[in-house]
Amino acid sequence: MWEVECEALPGLEELLEGEVRRVPGAGRGLRFDFAGPVAALLRLRIAQSVYLVVPVASARPTGLLGEQQLRRLEGAVALVRTLHRRDSIRSFRLGAAGYHSSTFRRLASELSRRTGLAFDPDDGDLLLRVRRSRDGWEALLRISPRPLSTRSWRVRNMAGALNATIAAAMVELTEPLESDRFANLGCGSATLLIERLLRAPAGQALGYDRDPAALEAARANIAAAGLEGHVQLVRADLERLPREAASVEALVADLPYGNLVGSHAANTRLYPAILREAARLAVRGARFAGTHATVEVEVRGVGALTVHAPPDTRIALGAAVVVCVPSPACTVVPDPPS
Ligand SMILES: C[S@@+](CC[C@H](N)C(=O)[O-])C[C@H]1O[C@@H](n2cnc3c(N)ncnc32)[C@H](O)[C@@H]1O
């Protein structure tokens, strides 16, 4: 049994909790005791990182040097190594304030001796964080050499590409169904399309973008994800999409923020135009999740990704109603009966 801590970007916690609840054997919340196979936690798509926790009920970090704690840490390292290719983990590093102290130097050398891994303070493959806890201290070993948000399918990056855990969270907001015809307006390098199809099959997956370089990156990433033939990429202007009305059940749009892509001035005209097109494509009751300009600020700041829209922020748009708040979440819901 391991104590596990899952980490999400600010604002995504609730959606990650929902994803964690679907893992057999996982508890509630983002910190829980877990008796199931830890490999299952590597498949969490909304988690930024997942850690095995070794608590130490001691007022000083020297408590980590006790035999029992060192054995537990050794066990955690051995377990994490079984989850990855043998040659992908050769070293570890410490993430701790004051890791040059004699206690942390001793911890590093003990762990190195017991596990055979080199201590590489800058580029170590495994990350061991040490921090104060309510009851004393705790060590947290990340279960993957890179954060889980780093996706192996991303072989082509693009300026303005979406963090994959945000994409996975947006996909959750669309409540994916296998029958969905799913459209990504402004698909860029295909982060949302790939995260959608890796979550569940779809009736159809459509990606629209006007930029040939973005579509080229999308093609490469889709192929790397093993999803060739499952996505239709279409070069098109989001204000005039070559698609009949009322023909998609789920839509996502990671709208240009106006910094790396587009401009703030252009957005004031572009956003309503794109949302109107989204509403035209949507069947009644379609689900829509979007990010927009304020997201960057909120994700980087202390604020959060607010995902629930207050009911008084509805903007009527033809066949559907777009619920839209200054947050990345927008939901298209059916018109109230007239
Ligand atoms: C923020 S980026 C999307 C990034 C994408 N989510 C990813 O992870 O790579 C916005 C995309 O919208 C596209 N775009 C902006 N305005 C457009 C328009 N009027 N018609 C079509 N595409 C547009 C841009 O080319 C860009 O690829």
Would you mind describing this structure in some detail?
The protein is an alpha/beta fold and 338 residues long. The chain has two domains: 2-142, VC0802-like (2-Layer Sandwich), CATH 3.30.2130; 164-334, Rossmann fold (3-Layer(aba) Sandwich). 28% of the residues lie in helices and 25% in strands. It has eight helices and 15 strands. The protein has helices at 13-21, 67-82, 102-115, 164-173, 191-199, 212-224, 264-281, 294-300; strands at 2-7, 31-34, 49-56, 91-95, 118-119, 126-133, 136-142, 181-185, 204-209, 232-235, 248-254, 282-291, 314-317, 320-324, 330-334. The strands form three sheets. Strands 2-1-3-7-6-4-5 form a seven-stranded mixed sheet, covered by helices on one side. Strands 10-9-8-11-12 form a five-stranded parallel sheet. α2 crosses α3 and α4 (164-173) crosses α5 (191-199). The longest helix has 18 residues, at 264-281. The termini are far apart. It binds S-adenosylmethionine (SAM). S-adenosylmethionine (SAM) is lined by residues 158, 160-162, 186, 188-189, 191-192, 209-211, 214, 237-239, 254, 256, 261-262.
